[in-house]
Protein backbone atom coordinates (compact mmCIF):
# COMPACT_ATOMS: atom_id res chain seq x y z
CA UNK A 1 0.00 0.00 0.00
CA UNK A 2 1.13 3.49 -0.69
CA UNK A 3 0.18 7.13 -0.62
CA UNK A 4 -0.09 9.02 -3.91
CA UNK A 5 1.10 12.63 -3.97
CA UNK A 6 0.61 14.86 -6.98
CA UNK A 7 2.51 18.13 -7.00
CA UNK A 8 1.66 20.84 -9.55
CA UNK A 9 0.90 18.28 -12.23
CA UNK A 10 0.47 19.71 -15.75
CA UNK A 11 -0.37 17.81 -18.93
CA UNK A 12 -0.39 19.49 -22.31
CA UNK A 13 -1.32 17.68 -25.49
CA UNK A 14 0.14 19.87 -28.23
CA UNK A 15 -0.29 23.64 -27.95
CA UNK A 16 -3.84 23.81 -26.64
CA UNK A 17 -5.23 24.50 -23.18
CA UNK A 18 -3.69 22.02 -20.70
CA UNK A 19 -5.76 18.85 -20.21
CA UNK A 20 -4.52 18.89 -16.60
CA UNK A 21 -3.58 22.28 -15.23
CA UNK A 22 -1.53 22.52 -12.02
CA UNK A 23 -3.16 19.76 -10.01
CA UNK A 24 -1.86 19.13 -6.48
CA UNK A 25 -3.55 16.36 -4.53
CA UNK A 26 -2.45 14.08 -1.68
CA UNK A 27 -4.12 10.70 -1.41
CA UNK A 28 -3.38 8.97 1.89
CA UNK A 29 -2.31 5.37 2.32
CA UNK A 30 -5.50 3.27 2.24
CA UNK A 31 -7.73 6.14 1.18
CA UNK A 32 -10.51 5.76 -1.41
CA UNK A 33 -10.42 8.90 -3.60
CA UNK A 34 -12.99 9.66 -6.29
CA UNK A 35 -12.13 11.84 -9.31
CA UNK A 36 -15.35 13.27 -10.71
CA UNK A 37 -16.28 15.86 -13.30
CA UNK A 38 -17.81 16.28 -16.75
CA UNK A 39 -16.42 14.63 -19.86
CA UNK A 40 -13.15 16.24 -20.95
CA UNK A 41 -12.21 17.68 -17.52
CA UNK A 42 -9.01 15.60 -17.39
CA UNK A 43 -9.97 12.65 -15.14
CA UNK A 44 -8.66 9.94 -17.45
CA UNK A 45 -5.49 11.85 -18.24
CA UNK A 46 -4.76 12.26 -14.52
CA UNK A 47 -5.35 8.56 -13.85
CA UNK A 48 -3.17 7.57 -16.79
CA UNK A 49 -0.35 9.76 -15.46
CA UNK A 50 -0.59 8.00 -12.09
CA UNK A 51 -0.27 4.60 -13.81
CA UNK A 52 2.42 5.80 -16.19
CA UNK A 53 0.49 5.38 -19.45
CA UNK A 54 0.86 9.11 -20.14
CA UNK A 55 3.93 11.35 -19.77
CA UNK A 56 3.76 14.25 -17.33
CA UNK A 57 4.50 17.67 -18.88
CA UNK A 58 5.58 19.17 -15.56
CA UNK A 59 5.18 18.54 -11.84
CA UNK A 60 5.94 15.54 -9.63
CA UNK A 61 4.14 12.25 -9.16
CA UNK A 62 5.19 10.60 -5.90
CA UNK A 63 3.97 7.12 -4.99
CA UNK A 64 4.88 5.60 -1.63
CA UNK A 65 7.42 8.38 -1.11
CA UNK A 66 9.22 7.73 -4.40
CA UNK A 67 9.13 10.06 -7.40
CA UNK A 68 7.85 7.95 -10.30
CA UNK A 69 7.78 10.45 -13.21
CA UNK A 70 10.34 8.42 -15.13
CA UNK A 71 9.23 4.95 -14.05
CA UNK A 72 7.58 2.63 -16.57
CA UNK A 73 4.05 1.38 -15.71
CA UNK A 74 5.31 -2.10 -14.83
CA UNK A 75 7.74 -0.64 -12.27
CA UNK A 76 5.02 1.29 -10.42
CA UNK A 77 3.27 -1.80 -9.08
CA UNK A 78 -0.25 -0.43 -9.51
CA UNK A 79 -3.37 -2.29 -10.61
CA UNK A 80 -5.77 -0.70 -13.06
CA UNK A 81 -9.31 -1.81 -13.90
CA UNK A 82 -10.51 -0.52 -17.27
CA UNK A 83 -13.98 0.34 -18.49
CA UNK A 84 -13.86 -2.33 -21.18
CA UNK A 85 -12.56 -5.00 -18.75
CA UNK A 86 -9.84 -6.04 -21.25
CA UNK A 87 -10.38 -9.77 -20.56
CA UNK A 88 -8.80 -12.35 -22.85
CA UNK A 89 -11.66 -14.20 -24.59
CA UNK A 90 -9.68 -17.40 -25.28
CA UNK A 91 -8.56 -17.79 -21.65
CA UNK A 92 -10.53 -19.24 -18.76
CA UNK A 93 -11.53 -17.07 -15.80
CA UNK A 94 -8.70 -18.74 -13.88
CA UNK A 95 -6.07 -17.79 -16.47
CA UNK A 96 -7.49 -14.29 -16.86
CA UNK A 97 -7.07 -13.70 -13.14
CA UNK A 98 -3.67 -15.42 -13.12
CA UNK A 99 -2.34 -13.33 -16.01
CA UNK A 100 -0.33 -10.72 -14.05
CA UNK A 101 1.19 -13.49 -11.94
CA UNK A 102 2.23 -15.44 -15.05
CA UNK A 103 3.91 -12.28 -16.36
CA UNK A 104 5.76 -12.00 -13.05
CA UNK A 105 6.87 -15.66 -13.38
CA UNK A 106 5.16 -16.65 -10.14
CA UNK A 107 5.34 -20.40 -9.37
CA UNK A 108 2.31 -22.57 -10.25
CA UNK A 109 1.62 -23.38 -6.60
CA UNK A 110 1.66 -19.71 -5.61
CA UNK A 111 -0.51 -18.78 -8.62
CA UNK A 112 -3.03 -21.41 -7.59
CA UNK A 113 -3.19 -20.13 -4.03
CA UNK A 114 -3.51 -16.45 -5.01
CA UNK A 115 -6.08 -17.02 -7.78
CA UNK A 116 -8.27 -19.08 -5.45
CA UNK A 117 -8.06 -16.46 -2.71
CA UNK A 118 -9.08 -13.73 -5.16
CA UNK A 119 -11.90 -15.93 -6.53
CA UNK A 120 -13.19 -16.50 -2.99
CA UNK A 121 -13.26 -12.79 -2.20
CA UNK A 122 -15.16 -12.12 -5.43
CA UNK A 123 -17.35 -15.23 -5.31
CA UNK A 124 -16.03 -16.52 -8.60
CA UNK A 125 -14.79 -19.91 -7.41
CA UNK A 126 -17.58 -21.79 -9.24
CA UNK A 127 -16.74 -20.12 -12.54
CA UNK A 128 -12.98 -20.54 -12.77
CA UNK A 129 -13.03 -22.86 -15.77
CA UNK A 130 -15.47 -20.80 -17.83
CA UNK A 131 -14.63 -18.40 -20.66
CA UNK A 132 -15.53 -14.69 -20.40
CA UNK A 133 -18.15 -15.02 -23.17
CA UNK A 134 -20.17 -17.33 -20.91
CA UNK A 135 -20.31 -14.89 -18.01
CA UNK A 136 -22.74 -12.13 -17.12
CA UNK A 137 -21.61 -8.49 -17.22
CA UNK A 138 -21.24 -8.40 -13.45
CA UNK A 139 -19.20 -11.59 -13.41
CA UNK A 140 -16.92 -10.22 -16.11
CA UNK A 141 -16.43 -7.08 -14.10
CA UNK A 142 -15.50 -9.25 -11.12
CA UNK A 143 -12.94 -11.15 -13.17
CA UNK A 144 -11.37 -7.82 -14.12
CA UNK A 145 -11.25 -6.93 -10.43
CA UNK A 146 -9.83 -10.36 -9.62
CA UNK A 147 -6.98 -9.67 -11.97
CA UNK A 148 -6.39 -6.36 -10.25
CA UNK A 149 -6.38 -7.73 -6.69
CA UNK A 150 -4.43 -10.92 -7.34
CA UNK A 151 -1.22 -8.95 -7.28
CA UNK A 152 -0.09 -7.26 -4.10
CA UNK A 153 -0.23 -3.84 -5.73
CA UNK A 154 0.44 -0.49 -4.07
CA UNK A 155 -2.89 0.94 -5.25
CA UNK A 156 -5.99 0.27 -7.36
CA UNK A 157 -7.01 2.57 -10.16
CA UNK A 158 -10.48 2.37 -11.68
CA UNK A 159 -11.42 4.13 -14.93
CA UNK A 160 -15.24 4.24 -15.05
CA UNK A 161 -15.42 0.50 -14.43
CA UNK A 162 -19.22 0.32 -14.24
CA UNK A 163 -20.28 2.48 -17.17
CA UNK A 164 -21.06 -0.48 -19.43
CA UNK A 165 -23.41 -2.12 -16.93
CA UNK A 166 -27.16 -1.62 -16.50
CA UNK A 167 -28.45 0.41 -13.55
CA UNK A 168 -29.29 -2.55 -11.32
CA UNK A 169 -25.94 -4.24 -11.77
CA UNK A 170 -24.16 -0.92 -11.36
CA UNK A 171 -25.75 -0.52 -7.92
CA UNK A 172 -24.77 -4.04 -6.96
CA UNK A 173 -21.18 -3.69 -8.17
CA UNK A 174 -20.88 -0.36 -6.39
CA UNK A 175 -21.61 -2.10 -3.11
CA UNK A 176 -19.12 -4.85 -3.94
CA UNK A 177 -16.34 -2.44 -4.83
CA UNK A 178 -16.88 -0.45 -1.63
CA UNK A 179 -16.84 -3.65 0.44
CA UNK A 180 -13.74 -4.98 -1.34
CA UNK A 181 -11.86 -1.73 -0.87
CA UNK A 182 -12.65 -1.64 2.83
CA UNK A 183 -11.71 -5.25 3.27
CA UNK A 184 -8.37 -4.90 1.50
CA UNK A 185 -7.76 -1.35 2.79
CA UNK A 186 -5.78 -0.53 -0.31
CA UNK A 187 -5.28 2.99 -1.67
CA UNK A 188 -7.83 3.49 -4.46
CA UNK A 189 -8.40 6.14 -7.11
CA UNK A 190 -11.71 5.86 -8.92
CA UNK A 191 -12.70 7.91 -11.95
CA UNK A 192 -16.38 8.49 -12.69
CA UNK A 193 -18.75 11.06 -14.14
CA UNK A 194 -21.62 9.50 -12.16
CA UNK A 195 -22.73 11.65 -9.20
CA UNK A 196 -24.20 8.71 -7.29
CA UNK A 197 -20.94 6.78 -7.49
CA UNK A 198 -19.03 9.87 -6.44
CA UNK A 199 -21.26 10.46 -3.42
CA UNK A 200 -21.47 6.86 -2.18
CA UNK A 201 -18.14 5.17 -2.85
CA UNK A 202 -15.23 7.19 -1.63
CA UNK A 203 -13.68 8.67 1.50
CA UNK A 204 -13.11 11.91 -0.41
CA UNK A 205 -14.22 13.36 -3.72
CA UNK A 206 -12.01 15.50 -5.96
CA UNK A 207 -14.10 17.59 -8.34
CA UNK A 208 -12.31 18.52 -11.56
CA UNK A 209 -13.29 21.24 -13.98
CA UNK A 210 -11.37 22.05 -17.17
CA UNK A 211 -8.19 20.42 -15.93
CA UNK A 212 -8.17 22.05 -12.49
CA UNK A 213 -9.32 21.00 -9.05
CA UNK A 214 -12.48 22.80 -8.12
CA UNK A 215 -12.94 21.18 -4.73
CA UNK A 216 -11.77 18.28 -2.56
CA UNK A 217 -14.16 17.20 0.18
CA UNK A 218 -15.83 14.22 1.85
CA UNK A 219 -19.20 13.17 0.38
CA UNK A 220 -20.81 14.46 3.59
CA UNK A 221 -19.24 17.92 3.23
CA UNK A 222 -20.35 18.05 -0.42
CA UNK A 223 -23.85 16.98 0.52
CA UNK A 224 -24.23 19.51 3.29
CA UNK A 225 -22.94 22.51 1.40
CA UNK A 226 -25.56 25.00 0.13
P1 LIG B 1 -12.07 12.94 -19.05
O1 LIG B 1 -11.45 11.65 -18.67
O2 LIG B 1 -12.43 13.78 -17.87
O3 LIG B 1 -13.22 12.78 -20.00
P2 LIG B 1 -9.66 13.34 -20.57
O4 LIG B 1 -8.57 13.24 -19.60
O5 LIG B 1 -9.96 12.15 -21.43
O6 LIG B 1 -10.99 13.80 -19.82
O7 LIG B 1 -9.40 14.56 -21.53
C1 LIG B 1 -9.03 15.86 -21.06
C2 LIG B 1 -8.74 16.77 -22.26
O8 LIG B 1 -7.60 16.31 -22.95
C3 LIG B 1 -9.87 16.79 -23.28
O9 LIG B 1 -9.95 18.11 -23.78
C4 LIG B 1 -9.40 15.83 -24.34
O10 LIG B 1 -9.92 16.17 -25.59
C5 LIG B 1 -7.90 16.01 -24.29
N1 LIG B 1 -7.18 14.77 -24.68
C6 LIG B 1 -7.26 13.58 -24.04
N2 LIG B 1 -6.46 12.66 -24.62
C7 LIG B 1 -5.84 13.30 -25.63
C8 LIG B 1 -4.88 12.92 -26.63
N3 LIG B 1 -4.38 11.68 -26.66
N4 LIG B 1 -4.48 13.84 -27.51
C9 LIG B 1 -4.98 15.09 -27.48
N5 LIG B 1 -5.86 15.54 -26.59
C10 LIG B 1 -6.31 14.65 -25.68
P1 LIG C 1 -10.89 6.41 -22.34
O1 LIG C 1 -9.88 6.60 -21.28
O2 LIG C 1 -11.34 7.70 -22.97
O3 LIG C 1 -12.03 5.51 -21.96
P2 LIG C 1 -8.86 4.84 -23.66
O4 LIG C 1 -9.13 3.81 -24.73
O5 LIG C 1 -7.77 5.82 -23.91
O6 LIG C 1 -10.21 5.60 -23.56
O7 LIG C 1 -8.55 4.09 -22.22
C1 LIG C 1 -8.05 2.76 -22.12
C2 LIG C 1 -6.73 2.58 -22.89
O8 LIG C 1 -5.62 2.12 -22.11
C3 LIG C 1 -6.88 1.58 -24.02
O9 LIG C 1 -7.02 2.27 -25.22
C4 LIG C 1 -5.58 0.80 -24.07
O10 LIG C 1 -4.93 0.93 -25.31
C5 LIG C 1 -4.72 1.49 -23.04
N1 LIG C 1 -3.79 0.57 -22.39
C6 LIG C 1 -2.47 0.83 -22.26
N2 LIG C 1 -1.87 -0.12 -21.60
C7 LIG C 1 -2.82 -1.05 -21.28
C8 LIG C 1 -2.80 -2.30 -20.57
N3 LIG C 1 -1.68 -2.79 -20.00
N4 LIG C 1 -3.94 -2.98 -20.44
C9 LIG C 1 -5.08 -2.49 -21.00
N5 LIG C 1 -5.14 -1.33 -21.66
C10 LIG C 1 -4.03 -0.60 -21.79
TrEMBL record:
Membrane-crossing segments per the record: none
Keyword Cytoplasm: no
Record-given protein name: Multiple sugar transport system ATP-binding protein
Signal peptide residue numbers: none
GO biological process terms held by the UniProt record: carbohydrate transport
Domain ABC transporter span(s) in chain numbering: 4-226
GO molecular function: ABC-type transporter activity; ATP binding; ATP hydrolysis activity
CC terms in the record's Gene Ontology section: ATP-binding cassette (ABC) transporter complex, substrate-binding subunit-containing
Keywords, sorted A to Z: ATP-binding, Cell membrane, Membrane, Nucleotide-binding, Sugar transport, Translocase, Transport
Organism for this UniProt entry: Klenkia marina
